[in-house]
Amino acid sequence: xxxxxxxxxxxxxxxxxxxxxxxxxxxxxxxxxxxxxxxxxxxxxxxxxxxxxxxxxxxxxxxxxxxxxxxxxxxxxxxxxxxxxxxxxxxxxxxxxxxxxxxxxxxxxxxxxxxxxxxxxxxxxxxxxxxxxxxxxxxxxxxxxxxxxxxxxxxxxxxxxxxxxxxxxxxxxxxxxxxxxxxxxxxxxxxxxxxxxxxxxxxxxxxxxxxxxxxxxxxxxxxxxxxxxxxxxxxxxxxxxxxxxxxxxxxxxxxxxxxxxxxxxxxxxxxxxxxxxxxxxxxxxxxxxxxxxxxxxxxxxxxxxxxxxxxxxxxxxxxxxxxxxxxxxxxxxxxxxxxxxxxxxxxxxxxxxxxxxxxxxxxxxxxxxxxx
Amino acid sequence: xxxxxxxxxxxxxxxxxxxxxxxxxxxxxxxxxxxxxxxxxxxxxxxxxxxxxxxxxxxxxxxxxxxxxxxxxxxxxxxxxxxxxxxxxxxxxxxxxxxxxxxxxxxxxxxxxxxxxxxxxxxxxxxxxxxxxxxxxxxxxxxxxxxxxxxxxxxxxxxxxxxxxxxxxxxxxxxxxxxxxxxxxxxxxxxxxxxxxxxxxxxxxxxxxxxxxxxxxxxxxxxxxxxxxxxxxxxxxxxxxxxxxxxxxxxxxxxxxxxxxxxxxxxxxxxxxxxxxxxxxxxxxxxxxxxxxxxxxxxxxxxxxxxxxxxxxxxxxxxxxxxxxxxxxxxxxxxxxxxxxxxxxxxxxxxxxxxxxxxxxxxxxxxxxxxxxxxxxxxxxxxxxxxxxxxxxxxxxxxxxxxxxxxxxxxxxxxxxxxxxxxx
Lengths: 372, 424
Known about the structure:
The complex is a heterodimer.
Chain A: E1 3-8, E2 29-30, E3 34-35, H1 36-46, E4 51-55, H2 60-66, E5 81-85, H3 100-105, H4 108-113, E6 118-123, E7 126-128, H5 132-141, E8 146-152, E9 163-167, E10 173-178, E11 187-196, H6 197-209, H7 215-223, E12 229-233, E13 238-240, H8 244-253, H9 257-265, E14 280-282, E15 287-289, E16 291-293, E17 298-299, E18 302-304, E19 307-308, E20 313-314, E21 319-321, E22 324-325, E23 330-331, E24 336-338, E25 340-342, E26 347-348, E27 353-355, E28 361-363
Chain B: E1 6-11, E2 32-33, E3 37-38, H1 41-49, E4 54-58, H2 64-70, E5 84-88, H3 103-108, H4 111-116, E6 121-126, E7 129-131, H5 135-144, E8 149-155, E9 165-169, E10 175-180, E11 189-198, H6 199-208, H7 217-227, E12 232-236, E13 241-243, H8 247-256, E14 283-285, E15 290-292, E16 294-296, E17 301-302, E18 305-307, E19 310-311, E20 316-317, E21 322-324, E22 327-328, E23 333-334, E24 339-341, E25 343-345, E26 350-351, E27 356-359, E28 377-379, E29 384-385, E30 390-392, E31 395-398, E32 410-411, E33 416-418
Parallel strand pairs in B: 1-4, 1-6, 4-5, 8-12, 14-17, 15-18, 16-19, 17-20, 18-21, 19-22, 20-23, 21-24, 22-25, 23-26, 24-27, 25-28, 26-29, 27-30, 28-31, 30-32, 31-33
Antiparallel strand pairs in B: 2-3, 6-11, 7-13, 8-11, 9-10, 9-11
């Protein structure tokens, strides 16, 4: 592959509510056994990209832990590999990353030392499968300066958290509205870009000179009339998890057979860090309906339309409905959970009652667990 | 200079013919166990959990699956700069080339491998037991007893002792006598096939007995050391240990995992069992499914009913199927309306719709009554069972079968249908 990869995984936003209190969005657990960044990272590995830089900033530890070994994505290589860049203080810079373009600028040495002619930029909060080679071929064919992967959303969907795109019939981008309150268009940017490496270096350097820091506002939008920016429409599944509602919905999408088949059974696979947990155990009295259950779970209660992440313990007479229970949660006897997301490593005491009345409730109890 | 205090030699070359069609294409240590594991994962995980980071795995019979599984040892953290896991197959020599002819002969042929690590002690393990043991504690015992050879033993019921190699000890655990599968056992301490040798003693014995035909630890090396006056001690172990050498004990050991608090607990944090996981996705349980008293591995799709069973990774169980008291290994596909009782279904086998397995009266197997008993139906890997057939008890099937193979749609109890693999 003639490209290096950059995954932007530093961001945080208030739309994740308490879920991003202790972790980066890219480190959010997704679909039982994965974390959000696994999708972009596996796509890079599966597209034969050999060198990937992950730019992290907010709650970086959660992500560093997950990426502590690059072997799970097959990046433990002599040539290339996985690079983790958190902001550092240097002789000429003492800022945090002030934006996506600034994050790239602060690590420009990495890009300058590469020899690959192209760069694939992706975000760490997308759930999708894509062959970046196809996007690159399209990019070359269109003689584009920048190619943006985009997805047509149903007209009913709120686009106010996306970059909204209008393309002409050749797919050249004519308008780009960043997070508009309302828009007459429904095609949004997936936050995946292809650009020539020299071009990117030049644009980012110029940006920095003008004290501008954002890749979308200060590069894409400002250059759109000057440079040839094209959209690459994907028809496959793509979802961004960066709000509580979309996070919930994305996980629930995996209860659909076609989504599971697409991600779990069709080539290529998505990889993740291996946790060495035993198979899930169903004891007498347990009942599970239309749910995903991950390894290490022990089930003694009732679970319906839910996603249980790794190592969840469901005690007797529990009722779990329409909920997401994150990793390593212990649910005490007779607990009732409905329309909730239960934060990882929590211990829910016996007889607790949590129901999301209007929308999804995020449950964080932070109880101590006493292990005998 | 390279120096490892203790290295392990893991004997994994045996066929395990008493597992019947399960080992027609893989060595016994590579047979799936407990949903997501293979038998060899237990001794390998014990090694790394005990701080033994240099393991030679001796392979001979059908090694492909084993080689693929072990790879460079990543799942067990046995990918090391120095040491780690090394697969040791038999090899051609300029002089007399031979296969591994016995357990000790296999170790003898790898003297050079062991010498590379300059060890003080060598741990001899076999790849066909399910247990958790801290070999470091056994080594401490070996050192404290000032022993030349330590043999791990466990007390078994007196009436079963005649199935094992039995050791007789004095009050200080020193071994005074052996009996190999005795009719009148003098003790109930059974050898577990786990030995720690002081390196010098092992090396001397292996060289001395190099011309012994089918040189074996239990039959030749240990008696030799005893006769030489070396100090042999018994290390008594009282945890869970299971030889899964027969279909009955293999089935039983799997079934013991599904108890509410199993005697052999995979869920303990401090002694994890590692394996190479090919399947990562979570399992899906449909709205019509019913599951009770079972363990189910990753990536499965359950649309039917599963009771008291062990289901491997990536298995699909179709709508309306009822699986009871069975073991289904990785990647198998069970169609709709299948009824299964006491089945062992090996990897990637496909069972079509409305097949009934484990029906009728129990009859002795005609072909190999000592292998296919316990009322179990054993189906080898990559097999295919056509729709609407009935299969009786104590039966074995291996390979792609067609409706014509089932007279009147039935394979009677005690029948065998082998169309693939070495005819085992």
